[in-house]
Amino acid sequence: MAGLGQKLEIRQGQGLVITPQLQQAIKLLQLSNMELEAFVEGELERNPLLARDDNDPDRAESTEPVEAADAPADRAEMIFEEGGSAAATDAVDARPDDVYGDASPGEKTSDRLADSNQPLGDWSTVGRGGSIEADEDLLDRVLRREISLAEHLQNQAALMGFTPVEHAVALALIDGVDEGGYLRVELLELADRLGWSVERIEAVLVRCQSFEPTGVLARSVTECLALQLKEKNRLDPAMQTLLDNLELVARRDFGQLRALCGVDDEDMAEMMAELKALTPRPGAAFGGEPSQTVVADVFVKPDPAGGWRVELNADTLPRLLVDKRYHAVVQASARSDEDKTFVAECSAQAAWLVKSLDQRAKTILKVASEIVRQQDAFLAFGVECLRPLNLKTVADAIGMHESTVSRVTSNKYLATPRGLFELKFFFTSAINSTDGAASHSAEAVRHKIKLMIEAESAEAAVLSDDRIVEILKEAGVDIARRTVAKYREALRIPSSVERRRLLRTG
Known about the structure:
It contains 23 helices and eight strands. It is mainly alpha-helical. A four-stranded mixed β-sheet has the order 3-2-5-6, covered by helices on one side. Strand 7 (about 430) and strand 8 form a beta hairpin. Residues about 55-90 and about 95-145 have low confidence and may be disordered.
């Protein structure tokens, strides 16, 4: 039997270590402007070497920006260049194996909580100048809060089987819902902003009014109560007349109500009991945190010279400085090794935070500029001109990784002449063309499928999924049968067998 022994070996290998500072830089990318403000406030309280840059002349004498970081560019003109943009080698770019999944952000707009707020790692080694407490407190508050009404409606919209354009319209409608669940945006105004007809927007609204809780997205109390009664199959002509005369109900003028509704005292009592059982404010059940106004991170404005001007919102950019004068004072007064270590850690952490905030601003501007370049047709002509776009296209154009783009597009908003949109709104999936030409957007293909099926007027005209595939391929759309079936099911359209049966039975 061979004896046991000890020996020394030297092995060479490669590994990737993410420092706490780099974790912080990556974390800052995905924070919304409100979360970032809370994070910065915590750092200002913990780190005595950090100070706000309020453009105060007195403060300018005692503070200096850290040498490692330039002042963030809060205003920049986007220049379109052939062949994409220069490669980016910034430290905030994520490693290749750190990807947020392969789903199209345009189809998962409500995934903010699922992916974008997960902890990035152990921050315990940051030291006393670190930010683990703020990170954990912020994450804990986010995870413990109740789901908001808007998020609840967005989750249902994602499962409704809307085309991408219809889904975008549904999200715009949901943005116009108040805390009580009522729609407070005029359809005509929304139609002008999105470039759609009022009739088509109203068709989307009708489908959205089937969401839970019943009665949401109503435009009046009468419509809200009618939706609830309709669900219970109790919206008969008498009850509709009662709803149309709620002012008489408020005055308790039951005599006139009975005459208008054509009912007796017993029926009126039952109708009033049903009315009292309804919920006039269906959205009130969703409390959670108070709703906060969404503030745009980036502005897009028409450029007088042509094209679009992309600018960061300077009001959402924290401006921090490293107080060099105070640093010199506390460093000179530090006596023990522990005090000196603490001062050094605070200085390093402050310098890195200033640099990370600057890099975050530049990265957001770079990603937003490329999105605007890709989706300029939407800005010019409306929602139907959204182009197929994914994370990889933007990442390749700006020289960053997909996961970095994913973090930047989470919880960031773009103010355009057509309204305020989350950056993820502009990502839609694509379907290849049979002739190698430009890809077709999934929205356009779904719309074609829907129109073909709606045109079926007789049993013999019913199209099978295979036939739909043939028609689409003749039109230059390279699509598989299972994809057609998936789109049809998402649109809640029965199979060809069921449609023939429905036509046969009339």
